Automatic annotation (TrEMBL):
This is DUF4149 domain-containing protein. The keyword Transmembrane applies. The chain crosses the membrane at residues 6-31, 72-88, 120-139. It comes from the Bacteria. Keywords: Membrane, Transmembrane, Transmembrane helix.
Amino acid sequence: MLSSAIYASFFFTVALLVTTAYFLMGGLPLLTLKHDTPLDARFVRGFFNVYYRAAFWTSLGAFVSYMLWGRYPFAIGVAVNACVVALLRKHLLQAMQQLGAQIEASGSSAIRHFRRVHSAALSVNLVQLVAIVWGLLWLSQQLR
């Protein structure tokens, strides 16, 4: 008999999967922005701020539900994801803010660095998505 925590675990896992995939797909077209105005930088920074908040809270919900379900490896996995998201939110958003302020003054150098930070954020997002999908596949094998 499965615990009722399984439903919460699946809900939060799907929410985390959808959040991560949605923001990855939404962040890719933002790379087409010229990033030549502070407004572009502020928009991209706000976009990632929303993602990091959503990913943190869904990871936290998944952590609690996996703990209640007794799936401790998955609880640790989503706890690690929550920590990574919190660190990225702190460091990448701070870098985006500083580079956004330099865009008008510095020009191409700040724009190039901002694009690198944006690309790095998307790359980490992709790694998170792959890890979540891998975890789901592994979990489905364990439930058979």
